[in-house]
Amino acid sequence: MAHSIQDIATVLGAQAFGAVDLLVNGAAEPGSARPDELALAMTPSYGPALKAGQAQAAVVWPDADWQALGLKAAIIAPRARLAMAGLTQLLDRPLAGSGIASQALIDATATLAENVAIGAFSVIAGNVTIGPNTWVADHVSIAEGVQIGADCIIHAGVRLQRGTVVGDRVILQPNVAIGGDGFSFVTSEPSNVELARESLGDAPMIAPADPKWHRIHSLGGVEIGDDVEIGANSTVDAGTIRPTRVGQGTKIDNLVQVGHNVVIGDHCLLCAQAGVAGSTIVGDRVVVGGKAGIADNLTVGNDVVLGGGSVVLSNVPNGRVMMGYPATKMQTHIESYKALRRLPRLLRGLNKR
Q: Is-catalytic flag, 260?
């Protein structure tokens, strides 16, 4: 679908200049943009490619001399990534499929509101409720009693286990698994890991008479708040007695593990391969970098930023920026890193004495 430059600028809340009635059919990078595509050149580094390319219109940085760049029209975007959010939403293709596929299996006791779409080979169990305008793709399984809100998008291969409650406008990317049992086991006598933790490694490790691990079943389910997005192949385990919770507006990347009994606050970001161990509480607006980990039974305060690869082993107060393993304040980590890099030089100096 074609859009005029003025229409795009209006959606973005931005200013348009030049031939604002010019129509474009999509977006592209400056070097590869065709004449009917809107080039995305939001920083000056894109200027040379834009000038050499075929684009007639572009989203450009503030103060850009768009006419000198050979453009017929331009949109000025003071905040580039925010403009990207609005633009990609405008240009995104609609979801394929509507209605109930003939190959779907839906229990007679399930309640589907108006305009719900169910894809082929999806299985909807008994007493499930799905809100209006929710789209369920192919090969999705939704277990007994699951509740799903309005305007949700549930992609192919998603698994929603019993006790799962999903809010409104939630997006679950392919192969998300919500509500699987938590990783929770106990031995009849204190295990070596318990001994190690209590003694900080001083207690001798022993071969127990009864090494069997006894399963602690997960009865608590999962509650997903409104406007949450969860990336492909990520998992949120069910709580033991109370639900595991993910707060409203939180965004979870691909390959993220949220353990049983965890509480994730509102408007958090959890990046790829991050993990939050059982019974930990994460506050509001927390950013967890890629491959970062948070140990069990901890509390991470509001407005915390955890750098990529950090491993949190103790409670974190509000507003702290943490890095490293074990995670420390960013300033402390940087000082320690600098000191570590100086060690070889110091040792060489000592050896010369």
A: yes
Question: Which tens digits make up the pLDDT trace of 261-299?
Answer: 999 999 999 999 999 999 999 999 999 999 999 999 999
Lowest mean pLDDT among 115-119, 188-192, 335-339, 346-350: 346-350
Question: 28 near 39, Cβ under 8 Å?
Answer: yes
pTM of the model: 0.90
Query: For residues 124 and 105, is the Cβ–Cβ distance under 8 A?
Result: yes
Tell me which of 214, 260, 267, 333 is the catalytic residue.
Answer: 260
Q: Which candidate, 262, 273, 112, places its Cα nearest to that of 178?
A: 262
CA atoms within 13 A on the CB side of 328: 9
The reported pLDDT for the residue numbered 308 is: 96
Q: What are the tens digits of pLDDT across the range 18-71? A: 999 999 999 999 999 999 999 999 899 999 999 888 999 999 999 999 999 999
Question: Residues 313-327: pLDDT tens digits?
Answer: 999 999 999 999 999
Tokens of residue 44, six digits = 């000056």
Q: Which two tokens stand for residue 289?
A: 């970098």
Residue in the structure block whose two tokens are 């979870």:
252
Instruction: For residues 142 and 109, give the distance between their C-alpha atoms in angstroms, rounded to a whole number.
Output: 13
Q: Tell me the two tokens of residue 41.
A: 């050149």
* C-alpha–C-alpha distance, residues 177 and 62, integer Å: 43
